[in-house]
Each structure stands twice: as C-alpha cells, then as structure tokens.
Model the fold of this input.
Amino acid sequence: MTDSKKMFIKTYGCQMNVYDSERMVETMAAQGYETTEVIEDAELILLNTCHIREKASEKLYSDLGRLRPLKQARPDLKVGVAGCVAQAEGDEIKRRMPLVDIVVGSQAYHRLPEMMNGIGKMTDTDFPTTDKFDLLPRRTGTVGPVAFLTVQEGCDKFCAFCVVPYTRGAEVSRPPQRILTEARGLVEKGVRDITLLGQNVNAYHAAGYGLARLIRDLSQIDGLHRIRYTTSHPNDMEDDLIAAHGDLPKLMPYLHLPVQSGSDRILKAMNRKHTAEHYLRLIERVRAVRPDIVLTSDFIAGFPGETAADHQATLDLIAAVGYGMAYSFRYSPRPGTPAAEKPELSDDVALARLHDIQALITRQQRALQDAMVGREVSVLYEKPGRMPGQMVGKSEYLHSVHVDDSFGQPGQLVQVRISASSANSLAGVKISD
Done:
C-alpha cells in the first residue's frame, strides 16, 4: 500500500510483552501502519516497556533522551510509551519527557488508534472491565511456526518483590472458546508450536476450565504439534495439570516453575506462601509422570535479610533439582513493593551470591546438554541457520538445535540424532521427517 505509514516498535522484557507488541502492531496495521526497522523513517515510535528488572525506568528515559533530536527535527513524529512502566509512571513520564505524546498502560493498548487520532486522553492507564482482546483485530498476515498466546493476565500473589499486581492488575483469565478460536487461526497460518502465556498462567480458570482442561482441548487441534505454558507458580500446580504432563503427548517435556529461593525463611519474607520442601515434592510428582522433563526456574540472589545459610539453602535446592536452565538476578527494589522498604545487602555480597547461583546452574545446564549427545529428539525447524544448508529449530526440550539439511523448511518437524553439544545449543543429524 503506497500510502501506508511507518511504525517503529521496541519491546522490552518478557514474552507477554512480545505478544502485546504483536497485537499493537496488528491494531495499528488496521489503521494503515506498517512496521519499519529504521527508526528515522517512522511516523510513530512506540516503546513497550517492562517494569520487572532493575533500572527499568532509567532505561526508558535514556532511550527517550536519544529520541529528543529526532522529535525536535520532526515535530509531527508521534512518540508513545506502552506497557508496565507506562502503567506505573504514566504522569511522571509525561512530566519528565514532554516529547512523549501517548502513554498507554498494559491493559489499554486497544485504544491506541483513538489516541493516535487525538480522541480521548493521551495518558490511559486504566484497568478496563472489558476484555481488551475482544476489541483487537484478529491476527493478520503471515506468522512463523512458533507463536505465543496470552491466556491469563495479572497476579493475585503479591510477592514482596514484585510489581506485577500493580502494573498488570488482578488475575483475569480469557474465555476458553476465544483462546481456542485464536489458536485454530494461528494453526491455519502455519503455527505448529504454541506457548500459552500468563503472569501466573497455571492460575488460569474460566468457564469451568483450568489450565489442564484448556491444554487438553488445544491438543485436539489438528496441525498443532506442540504446547507449552509459562510462567507458573508452585501453589497453582494442580493434580490435573501434573497428570497432563504424563497424558498428553503434545504437552512438551519442559516446565518453567520459579521458586526464587531455597530458604523457607526468605520464601516467607518474599510472601511466596510455599516452602522449599513443598517445591521439591512437587518436582518429584512431575518427574514421576514425565521422567525426562526439563525443569527451569527463577532465582533472586541477595534478597533483603538473606544470610549465608539462606544462600546455601538455595544452592542446596538447585543441586537437588538439577535444572536445565534458570534465570537468576541480583535483588533490586521495585518502588511501591513491600521489600523495597527493607535494608538491602551490600552489592558485593549480592553479586557474589548471584555468581554462585549462576555457576552452579551453568554446570547443570551443560551437563544436561552433554547428556543429549547420541539421543534422538524431534526438532521443529524455525529458520535457516547461519551456515548454508543448515536449519535451526527447537527440540521438545526447548534446546536450540542446528541441523544440516539443505532441503529443510520452517515448520517441518523432523527426527534428529544429537551429535554435539556447545554452551547454548546442540548440533544434530537428521534421521527422518
């Protein structure tokens, strides 16, 4: 379309932000916008922010500062801030950065077209009662073989370190039939692997459905080969969901189950409402139904009040579980959360503990990948590799696998024998389609 307008979007943070950015792009495509990778060509620049990690606001303001000369040269350029930092600091963003035209929170981005047309307020951080997904255009255009699908938003857990309940709101689950309809539409466009997303995805409950029933219905969709879900809370791993890991071949042998700490004292201070023993028994139950499952987790090092004994308890839990991978972070206070009011550990202590955690997890990750050599796995091709005649895809365990296959195409599911292991990926030889 020759009269199309250009939109540049930058996404910070988690997979849910990736999904939200995709939907914002689709929303603006219905208004005649197409995306560009050249920021200077854009009529609309949108920064979709995350508020979970350290210095999220500073990163946003730094990026906005770099946009100031562009905005001064082109006063008609529209600059928008979306997502969780927008939700938490909407008025402050406009005060500190007058170059920002639009601030739209994580639950209001379906209103972007109205805001771009100057209809209504230019800062919208409300939590609307309507389902924003009902008001968004259906997915258009082509997609790859892998897709995210948000099924749940918000969190009611109020962990002491986390801003999600304040930026994403209370737990809300999308109606199952709408999810199934969207999933069928994705499969019709070539998607073969869907990851169900939620801030607390295994808290999904809607119209008599829990997450296990939703996955069972999704597994009946012809052409959908793989299903995963993230991120989970240990307190919401219900019996039927655990059973699904043993019963449903399309539910992949991969589970991301954050624990944050191995110390009961710190877990209580975090308001996690589970113990290390509860978590370990949960892992045993999951492995009983799916022995080959790969487990990943989240850890916070240096939480306020953490002692050397608490840190050792975390290392002991990691050693007991044996993770395929984990995300670990040094504690950083999030404004407005209960933990932010507590005295912090010294940077040196927190950083040293983070390095301990990361070193142990790295050893576990490498050992698991090395043990894959000689095994046969299924690989879903996602894209050509960097080398000629090579395809790259994911195994059922979410390992990235490079396969020599001159005739491979994205979306193909092939059997591969793993021949080599490196730090972050595997190499394999194709056996059959």
Notes: The chain has a mean pLDDT of 91. The longest strand covers residues 376-384. The two ends are 39 Å apart (CA to CA).
